[in-house]
Structures are given as C-alpha cells and as structure tokens.
Write a structure and sequence with these properties.
- The protein is of the alpha+beta class.
- It contains five helices and five strands; from the N terminus they run αββββααβαα.
- A hairpin with a 3-residue loop joins strand 3 and strand 4.
- Helix 1 runs antiparallel to helix 4.
C-alpha cells in the first residue's frame, strides 16, 4: 500500500490543478478585463476590453458594457484569441473527463488496468494542449499591449492600454493546466513500475511456496 500512495497523491494533485486551470481558463475567456485604459483627463472613468465586449466604468453611472458587433472588425489578436480560448476550454473539458476515468480512486474499469493507464495519459496530454492554447492568446495580447504602450510614434498625451486582470488569470490557467497534465502523465508512467515490482514480489513468493523442497535443499547445502 505504501507504494501506491505517491501515485495516488500525484493523480489527485494533477486532477485538482487541471480542474482549477480549466475553471480559470473559462473565466478568462468571458471576462472583459483583458486590457484596461485609465483616462488622465477623467480619472473617474475606466475602460476595459475583452474578447467579447468593451465596458466603461463611471463613478456616477456604474459599469456599462457593449458586445462587439462584428467578428471580422476585431483586431487579429482578438479574433485568434477567441478561437484559441474556445479550443482551450473544450480540450480542458475532454482532458478532465478522460483523466477522471483513468484515476485509481474510480472503481469503474478497475480490472482493465491498461485502459485506465491509457486514459490517464490521454487526459494529461490533452490538458497539456489546453494549457498551451490558453497561454498563447494571453501572451500574444500582452505582447501587443506592451508594443503599443512603448510606441514612440504615438504622442505621450494619448492614453495607453495596460494589462487587465484577465491576462493574469489566463497565465495562471495555462500554468495550472500544464502542471496538472504533467503530474497526471508522471502518475501514469509510475503506475507500471509500481505494479511491475509488486507482481515480481508476488511471483517470487508464490514460487517459494510451490517449491519448498528446493528451498530446504539450498539451506542444507
């Protein structure tokens, strides 16, 4: 039983981190705080932009949001980010389902160890892909934001866009998905080694029980 504990801990930790990363990636997809704009002329007004809508927050009126009318009218980084974030959410869900069916704590299909191991590896790999799909769009938007912020051709009086909270959520989501997928793959690879050693010990014990006379002869010699 002691040999199984590290594997079980790795599986549970990987599944938990992957679930947390998937939830954060879903929030990143729909939150409108990808970029923030604070106006120096009117400090009580704050603009935010996401993948789906733009919002303005005023102290007296509150927050008002408007959905983007046209997909093709968006900048290239926002169009690609929409597709990649949808891909990340879908892959994350599929990876969680596959990895969940391959966990040792789930008694379903306990006799088919090879299938459970394959599902665990598949889930970990798909979660890796989901993490990459989440990191690419937030990093691309962050890169464009930095370039536009330090663009010397734009007059200094013009307000500049800055990082929004959703970008940081997206980075955390991608890293959690990558780490969770890595732990699940490591747990799946360690499963075979643990079972192999267990089978070897069981086979050796059974062989000694079947041939007691041979063991006694070796002791006399």
């Amino acid at each position: 039983m002691m040999a199984l504990e590290p594997r079980s801990v790795a599986q549970l930790a990987g599944a938990s981190l992957s679930l947390l990363g998937w939830v954060l990636s879903c929030l990143t997809n729909y939150l409108p705080q990808w970029k923030n704009l604070n106006l120096d002329l009117n400090e009580m007004e704050n603009w935010t932009v996401g993948l789906w809508q733009a919002c303005v927050t005023q102290e007296e009126v509150g927050t008002q949001c408007k959905d983007f009318d046209s997909f093709l009218a968006l900048p290239a980084e926002l169009r690609v980010s929409r597709v990649l974030m949808f891909l990340s959410n879908g892959l994350g869900l599929l990876g969680l389902l596959a990895a969940g069916l391959g966990l040792d704590c789930l008694r379903l299909g306990e006799s088919r160890r090879g299938l459970k191991k394959g599902l665990l590896i598949l889930g970990g790999t798909v979660l890796w892909a989901a993490g990459v799909a989440a990191l690419v769009p937030v990093s691309w938007v962050a890169h464009r934001t930095v370039r536009e912020f330090w663009d010397e051709t734009v007059p200094e009086i013009v307000p500049r866009w800055e990082f929004g909270e959703a970008l940081f959520l997206g980075w955390f989501a991608g890293f959690f998905l990558l780490l969770g997928g890595a732990l699940l793959n490591c747990a799946a690879c360690s499963t075979q080694a643990a079972r192999a050693s267990g089978h070897y010990v069981a086979a050796e014990t059974q062989d000694r029980r079947q041939h007691p006379e041979t063991n006694k002869t070796h002791l006399k010699i």
